[in-house]
TrEMBL record:
<dbReference type="InterPro" id="IPR024705">
    <property type="entry name" value="Ssp411"/>
</dbReference>
<dbReference type="InterPro" id="IPR012341">
    <property type="entry name" value="6hp_glycosidase-like_sf"/>
</dbReference>
<dbReference type="InterPro" id="IPR008928">
    <property type="entry name" value="6-hairpin_glycosidase_sf"/>
</dbReference>
<dbReference type="InterPro" id="IPR004879">
    <property type="entry name" value="Ssp411-like_TRX"/>
</dbReference>
<dbReference type="InterPro" id="IPR013766">
    <property type="entry name" value="Thioredoxin_domain"/>
</dbReference>
<feature type="region of interest" description="Disordered">
    <location>
        <begin position="121"/>
        <end position="143"/>
    </location>
</feature>
<dbReference type="InterPro" id="IPR036249">
    <property type="entry name" value="Thioredoxin-like_sf"/>
</dbReference>
<feature type="compositionally biased region" description="Basic and acidic residues">
    <location>
        <begin position="535"/>
        <end position="549"/>
    </location>
</feature>
<protein>
    <recommendedName>
        <fullName>Thioredoxin domain-containing protein</fullName>
    </recommendedName>
</protein>
<feature type="compositionally biased region" description="Basic and acidic residues">
    <location>
        <begin position="518"/>
        <end position="528"/>
    </location>
</feature>
<feature type="domain" description="Thioredoxin">
    <location>
        <begin position="1"/>
        <end position="115"/>
    </location>
</feature>
<dbReference type="Pfam" id="PF03190">
    <property type="entry name" value="Thioredox_DsbH"/>
</dbReference>
<feature type="compositionally biased region" description="Basic and acidic residues">
    <location>
        <begin position="121"/>
        <end position="137"/>
    </location>
</feature>
<dbReference type="GO" id="GO:0005975">
    <property type="term" value="P:carbohydrate metabolic process"/>
</dbReference>
<feature type="region of interest" description="Disordered">
    <location>
        <begin position="518"/>
        <end position="549"/>
    </location>
</feature>
Length: 549
């Protein structure tokens, strides 16, 4: 991305900060992403301007960071989107920052920051609040959490355009799934809005978001993680309704993921696809076919791949779609063979951008890798539970700080030496630990999951709809999820019937032969257990009985 610029970019690392300290100048951090159209535009219009580049090279130490490849840097310095243009003191503390800056805006900011540094130096810097105040507001989980989250969804629901909030309008797959079980009509209208506005009818897959409240000004980049999450959400909508309008977007997105975003060399999913040529998305199909395909970032990242594996297995569980199963298994094999070692899921495979495999545990990557292993055990009956245990145990050992988790070990240049306690990643791990406790019978994982959520519970009434997953996991801990245990292998009629019980928050446990006779099934919820069922029809009856108790 930086080949068109005249800026002498340094790599992220302590050497850049040492250089800034020695020269007594600030660091200019440019956070970009390969799929970000505005990032390329800023390179071409701002950083390529000779006088701006000379000013930066003379008065700053410029550092370029790919946000996807260095998520810890992204999470500490992101200014709300990409590009992020952040000015730092030599110790990594923030001076000021902005998003996209055109040439005139950049000239003004460079002069302002230069003057600020000359007059105040490091006294002008600050540590962002999430890194300064590390203790979350703890409390007790109560049934009010689920109700409060539902009330927030209802309050921010857009009756006219569907979805939640005003602008920009994101698809919010976790909110879609939360609403599916608690307000089906709100979920239905929002799913239809996402499909109508963000789904690419020509190539398949979902665009990232709409900049306007009515879903206008679509941002046409396609990211693996958001597409995978939407495959799962639409698959779960199909589970409840059996309607083709939900199955088709999921199916066609899987086709997109397994073609356009499939990296044959790595046998896994690529990271993203950049927007196409401006105006190409409004062309007729015959004309669009003549336009060059937008570039794909072939980087393989473990977290998004874990999410894709779970999503494809969810779709397979409801449809027996062999394509979804086959590609999920291939990506899972790459994750297990090339990315997982001693319970640590490496963030990414080496690629043309960086050629090293760093095995530092990252909380969200660990959580998504764990979910992929659990989905494989539940849906395919694969022998992945031991690997899942290892991931969970290493995460608890290395990243648990108090009753919740930090994003990674506190080490590295700049603010990487300070811990961050991300709510979304904590919730994702807690959700996986609930399933792990059921699949393994080890209650300790459930205890950690509950303590994790309680560590944030004091502020749960203020979580926005983006954190709907917190409400879902809290409900699973307080009310106990539906569990179907099977004395059969995966793939039997009884197993398929269990997977298709209309509750996407359930847990299916195949091969529970130490508890059940071969060919039998039992439905549980907390301390309640059904009679034994030996046919899909009898299983459906026992599910209804348990739910009515």
């Amino acid at each position: 991305m930086d080949d068109v610029t005249r800026v002498e970019w340094r790599a992220w690392g302590q050497a850049a900060f040492d250089e800034a300290e020695s020269a007594d100048v600030p660091v200019l951090l440019s956070l970009t992403a390969t799929w970000c159209d505005h990032c390329h535009e800023m390179d071409e219009q701002t950083y390529a301007e000779p006088r701006i580049a000379a000013n930066i090279n003379d008065r700053f130490v410029p550092v370029r960071v790919d946000a996807d490849r260095r998520p810890r840097v992204r999470d500490r310095y992101n200014m709300g989107g990409f590009p992020s243009t952040v000015f730092l003191a030599p110790d990594g503390a923030m001076l000021t920052g902005a998003g996209y800056l055109g040439p005139d805006g950049m000239r003004q900011v460079l002069d302002s920051v230069g003057t600020m540094w000359e007059s105040k130096g490091e006294d002008a810097s600050r540590i962002p609040r999430p890194l300064r105040e590390d203790e979350p507001p703890a409390g007790r989980l109560s049934s009010d959490v689920e109700g409060s989250m539902l009330a927030q969804l209802e309050e921010s629901y857009d009756e006219t355009a569907g979805g939640w909030g005003v602008e920009p309008k994101f698809p919010l797959p976790d909110a879609l799934e939360f609403a599916l079980k608690r307000d089906r009509e709100m979920a239905r209208r929002s799913l239809e809005a996402v499909s109508a506005n963000l789904f690419d009818e020509y190539d398949g897959g979902f665009y990232r978001f709409g900049a306007q409240a009515d879903w206008g000004e679509i941002q046409h980049e396609k990211l693996l993680d958001s597409n995978a999450a939407l495959v799962r959400a639409f698959s779960n909508a199909y589970l409840y309704t059996g309607r083709e309008e939900y199955q088709e977007p999921a199916s066609r997105t899987i086709e997109y993921l397994t073609t356009t975003l499939w990296n044959d060399d790595a046998d896994a999913f690529a990271n993203s696809q950049a927007p196409g040529e401006e105006g190409s998305y409004t062309l007729e199909a015959s004309d669009r076919a003549a336009v060059d395909d937008p570039p794909v970032d072939a980087g393989v990242f473990a977290g998004p791949n874990g999410l894709a594996i779970e999503a494809l297995l969810t779709y397979f569980a409801y449809t027996d779609d062999e394509r979804a199963r086959r590609y999920a298994e291939r990506a899972l094999e790459t994750l297990r063979t090339d990315l997982l070692e001693d319970g640590v899921v490496a963030h990414r495979l080496p690629d043309e951008v960086t050629d090293s495999l760093e095995r530092t545990p990252l909380l969200l990557t660990q959580a998504r890798g764990l979910r992929a292993m659990l989905a494989s055990a539940s849906v395919l009956g694969a022998e992945t539970l031991e690997g899942a245990r290892n991931i969970a145990d290493v995460t608890i050992e290395t990243l648990r700080d108090g009753d919740s988790f930090v994003d990674a070990p506190a080490r590295g240049a700049g603010l990487l030496e300070r811990s961050l306690r991300p709510l979304d990643a904590n919730v994702a791990l807690a959700d996986a630990l609930v399933d792990l406790a059921i699949l393994t019978g080890e209650e300790r994982y459930r205890t950690v999951a509950r303590e994790t959520l309680e560590d944030f519970a004091g502020a749960s009434d203020r979580f926005g709809v983006q954190m709907a997953k917190y409400g879902s996991v809290a409900a699973r801990l307080l009310e106990d999820p539906l569990v179907v245990r099977l004395g059969t292998d995966a793939g039997t009629d009884l197993h398929r019937a269990a997977l298709r019980v209309a509750d996407h928050e359930k847990v299916v446990v195949p091969n529970a032969t130490t508890e059940l006779e071969r060919g039998a099934a039992r439905v549980e919820r907390g301390d309640r257990a059904s009679a034994v069922a030996e046919t899909p029809e009898k299983l459906s009856e026992e599910v209804r009985t348990i739910l009515e108790q």
